Hints:
Layout: H1 23-32, H2 38-59, H3 76-79
Helix pairs in contact: 1-2
Amino acid sequence: MIATTVVGSYPKPPLPDSGKPFELRRTRRAMERGEATPADLERAQDRLVTELIKEQEEAGIDVISDGHVRWDDLVTPFAGRMAGFE
């Protein structure tokens, strides 16, 4: 048997024709403006992870991933902790 999985991050915005609003991106931007809390962000992340897990299960994926939705990108968490980066 060859196990299937999803490698890397899920796309951050939805496909243009999906008709779905992208709550996570909106919540991140609201946090930057001081209009949302870390708890709001965590709830948006949790809802998206639930959706992605369901999608993978329905597709028959063997090894399920959270799609790295808690990282806005792969570089920022590291660069933000290095001297000289903002």
